[in-house]
C-alpha cells in the first residue's frame, strides 16, 4: 500500500507542477496582450475629442549681428467631432527676450480619417468657408501624428 501512496503523491506533485506552469503561461500571455493594447495597438477608431500640437522655435539674427530673435510657431488641431474641428496658429516673435509681436489665429476645419491605416486629410477654412490650407496626416503612435502640408517634410504633432 505504501507504494500506491507514493505513486499518488508523485502524480499529485506532477499535476500541481503542470497546473502552476499553465497558470504562469496564461499570466505571461495576458500581460503581453495588455501591454500591446496600451502601446501601439491602442484603439484609434476615432480621433474625435483629441487635441494635437506642434511647436517650432527658430532663432533669427539681424544681418549686422546686432540683435537675436526667436520666432515661436505653435499649431494645434482640435478634433471636436467625427468630421469637424478647429485649427489654431500662435506666433510669437521675441527680440532679445522681449515679445515684439504676437498673434493668435483660429479657423474651422473639416477632416476625414481612415481608421485602417490611421491616415487622413484636413481642410482648414476661413470664416467664409473657403479653403485656406490642406494637410495630410498619419497617426504613427497613439501619441504622435505626422502632418504634411503639400509635399513638405512631416511635422510631428503630439497628443495633448
DSSP strand count? 8
Categorize the overall geometry.
elongated
**Helices and strands, in N-to-C order?**
HEEEEEEEE
Helix content: 10-25%
Query: Strand order of the main beta sheet, please?
Result: 1-2-3-4-5-6-7-8
CA-atom Rg in angstroms = 28 Å
Report the span from N to C terminus: 71 Å
Largest sheet: 8 strands, antiparallel, barrel
SSE-based structural type: alpha+beta
Q: Tell me the number of helical segments per DSSP (H or I, 4 or more residues long).
A: 1
Query: Which range does the strand content fall in?
Result: over 45%
Name the average pLDDT: 81
Low-confidence spans: 15-40
Walkthrough of the structure:
With 160 residues, the protein is an alpha+beta fold. It has 1 helix and 8 strands; from the N terminus they run H-E-E-E-E-E-E-E-E. An 8-stranded antiparallel beta barrel has the order 1-2-3-4-5-6-7-8. The N and C termini lie far apart (71 Å).
